[in-house]
Specification:
By secondary structure, the chain is α+β, with helices and mostly antiparallel strands. The chain folds into 3 domains: about 45 residues, no CATH class; about 80 residues, Sulfite Reductase Hemoprotein, domain 2; about 150 residues, Sulfite Reductase Hemoprotein, domain 1 (2-Layer Sandwich). It contains 11 helices and 11 strands. It has a 5-stranded mixed β-sheet with strand order 5-6-7-8-11. It has a 4-stranded antiparallel β-sheet with strand order 1-2-4-3. Helix 7 crosses helix 10. It starts with a helix and ends with a helix.
Length: about 325
């Protein structure tokens, strides 16, 4: 069963449950990353148009800026698009990105084309971003190249769907300027090419320092362990369960046994499955040129949009 409708047909006598659709879609895409049959009515409005709906019915557009490092050319394109589409606010986000607020739904494909940048997935239950400090390039305290590692992490895992959003960070030393200790996954350089990997941190409604999962050597091992935890979380967390709740529920010692000591003999499978998800990734903003369905960006009346948003939380 590789579609939400197929699950309902086989297990619920074709009786659909609207509240279950998004969770089922997330799980099926995790299980079948290259074969999942996408049905857009199983998505919330944000995921159908790849932008975050605002209280006035307009949308925000957040292009991906890898590890918070941009260029003059990208900044000029962002500024030109903001002027052309009369953006109501240009906001620097906490994830080191730039948010263009107040975009009309019909204008989304055009602004994506003009930006010429991939989606930042600021609207999705997915990998969001990997924040970084300056690292060793300029900072006199830097013990590890956090910018390069953060960009590697973000390019590899961008847009990978999960039970809830995942926010990451890389810190070039324990001074923790990128707040890695309180991210879903955070990595901290401690010198000699060693990186501490913390999981289950939070700094929102819940505040929690992440638990130390492992101390890796080098970027390659660090990225591999991060991907392994991501995949285990994707497969075993409850839908809408953040990593901090998942880590507390399962227990850090259990997770160390499974993901580091390979107590269940599944590490190789987890590594392979996250690679499948990476290989299946497709930038959703490509739908600016290849819409997923007819009238995708022709919106219903504002009152209908806001009613659906209220119903979906």
């Amino acid at each position: 069963m590789k579609s939400v409708s197929a699950v309902f047909a086989a297990l619920a006598d074709d009786k659909e449950d609207a509240d279950s659709k998004a969770g089922l879609a997330s799980l099926l895409k995790t299980l079948w990353p290259g074969e999942y049959e996408d049905e857009r009515d199983a998505r919330f409005i944000n995921d159908r148009v790849h932008a975050n709906i605002q209280r006035d019915g307009t949308f925000s557009v957040v292009p991906r800026i890898y590890a918070g490092v941009t260029t003059p050319d990208e900044l000029m394109r962002i500024a030109q698009a903001a002027v052309k589409y009369q953006v109501k606010m240009v906001k620097i986000t906490g994830g080191q990105r730039i948010d263009l607020l107040g975009i009309q739904k019909a204008d989304l494909p055009a602004i994506w084309k003009e930006l010429g940048m991939p989606s930042g997935h600021a609207y999705a239950k997915a990998f969001r971003t990997c924040k970084s400090c300056v690292g060793t390039d300029f900072c006199r305290y830097g013990l590890g190249d956090s910018i390069k590692l953060a960009q590697t992490i973000e390019r590899r895992f961008q847009g990978i769907e999960s039970p809830h959003k995942m926010k990451l960070a890389a810190a070039g030393c324990p001074r923790n300027c990128s707040e890695a200790y309180v991210k879903d996954i955070g990595v901290v350089a401690i010198g000699e090419d060693k990186w501490e990997i913390y999981i289950g941190g939070a700094a929102g409604g819940t505040v929690r320092k992440g638990d130390l999962l492992y101390t890796a050597r080098g970027h390659e091992e660090t990225v591999r362990v991060i991907g392994r935890f991501m995949q285990y979380y994707r497969e075993h967390a409850k839908y809408l369960e953040r990593t901090y709740g998942f880590v507390e529920r399962v227990g850090i010692d259990v997770l160390k046994g499974i993901l580091i000591e390979d107590s269940l003999g599944i590490c190789a499978r987890l590594d392979a499955k996250i690679q499948e998800a990476v290989d299946a990734y497709r930038d959703p903003w490509r739908e600016a040129r290849e819409p997923a369905y007819e009238r995708q960006f022709e919106g219903p009346r504002l009152v209908e949009v806001l009613r659906e948003t209220d119903n979906n939380g």
